[in-house]
Every structure is written in C-alpha cells, then in structure tokens.
Amino acid sequence: MLGINARPKVAKVLAPVVARLARAGVTPDMVTLTGTLGSIAGAVFLIGTGHLFWGAFTVTLLVLLDLLDGALARARGGGSLFGAVLDSTGDRAADAAIFGALAWWFSGAGDNRLLVLLALICLVLGVLTSYVKARAEGVGLSADVGIVERTERLILVLTGTGLAGLGVPYALHVALWVLLVGSAITVGQRFAAVHRESRGRPLPAASPVPPPPPAP
C-alpha cells in the first residue's frame, strides 16, 4: 500500500536520474538485473555471514533500483512483457535471498532457532501473498489489496535486520513477528477479495488444443 501511495512523489524525485539513464542507453532490464543480482549478493555475503547492518544497508540501496526500472521503461516508451516477468521474478528472488540469508545465519553462528522459524514463515507468507494476486489476475480477477505488500515487507525486515546489526535487542524479533501477522492478514484479505469478486463467475474455459498436423 505504501508503494502505491508514494509512487507519484518518488517519480518526481527520480525523474532527472531516469532521464540521464535513458539518454545513456540503459535499458530497464539492465536496471532490474543489477538490482536483483546485487540484492542477492548483499543478502548472501553480508546478511548470511552475520554483517546484519551493512547487509541491510546494501540491500536497501539496491532494492531502490526497483523504483527505477518501471520509470525508465515508461521514459523509453513503455515496457515489455519479458521485462514485466523479469521484474516480478527478480523481486521474488531478492526476497527469498534476504529471508534465506537470515535463516542461514541464525541456524548457524547466529544461534537463534526462533528467528530461523520466523524468517522461514515470513518467506512462505510472502510467496503466498504474491501468488494469490498473480493467480487471481491469471483468471481475470483482482487481488490488489492487503496491509503488507512488498514495500512494507522490505521495510520491516531490513529495518529489523539493520537495528539488530547495531545491537538493538529484539529488533529483528519484533520486525519478523509484525511481518508474520501482517502477511497472514494480507493473505486472508486477498483470498476474501477473490472470493467476493469470483462469486457467480465460472472458471474461464480452457482454449482448445489444436490437432497435430497430419503425418507426411
């Protein structure tokens, strides 16, 4: 929800940067790949090795590139279907790397099984949040609701991770508990929205499979 509401203001701030990138020939897919691969590397090699503050800081900077690719696509005349799929896939990969790195660290040297469990549950709920929306849109419905979407998810986990890296007691515990509850509510909200909208609407019929060509 924060991402949708803040997007127009952020677009104004980023407009000069987007214009320079467009003139330099940078493509949205380049930005998406840079942000995704950088976020994964920061999560694995910093958060996953216990450098929680610098990991959260690095991933936050790279995640912000996600704000540029869409704006750059619009500046270049519109995005592509491949770019849309690449962007969505990159988001899921970066999210998985963050929570996976937390689970890795706290299952080893970090030695906190509760945080491992919380991180894994939050990862699963994040996947469900995205999947319900994607599956709903695939059958012509809308599930663009929820109190915790990707922006809120990243704010909570990266803030909690960064504060934990600075030595703030239970900062990550609180962040993950809030994220867990909020994500569970969001999944419920999306299922409820799909149920309301789908009432009385049959599943679209599958397209008939064309017969194979005759043998020569």
Walk me through what this model shows:
The protein is globular. It has 216 residues and is mainly alpha-helical. Helix content is 74%, strand content 0%. The model has no long low-confidence stretch (mean pLDDT 87). α6 (113-138) runs parallel beside α8 (171-198).
Structure keywords:
216 residues; 8 helices; single chain; 74% helix; mainly alpha
Structural class: mainly alpha
Terminal-residue CA separation: 57 Å
Mean pLDDT rating: 87
Number-wise, the strands total: 0
Rg (CA only): 20 Å
- Determine the fraction of residues in helical runs and give it as a percent range: over 70%
Strand content is under 5%
Outline the biggest β-sheet.
none
Element pattern in H and E: HHHHHHHH
| SS summary, helix count | 8
Give the overall shape, derived from the CA principal axes. Answer: globular
Poorly predicted segments: none
Question: In summary, what is this structure?
Answer:
This protein is mainly alpha-helical and 216 residues long.
Strand and helix layout:
Elements: H1 2-23, H2 28-45, H3 52-63, H4 66-75, H5 81-107, H6 113-138, H7 150-165, H8 171-198
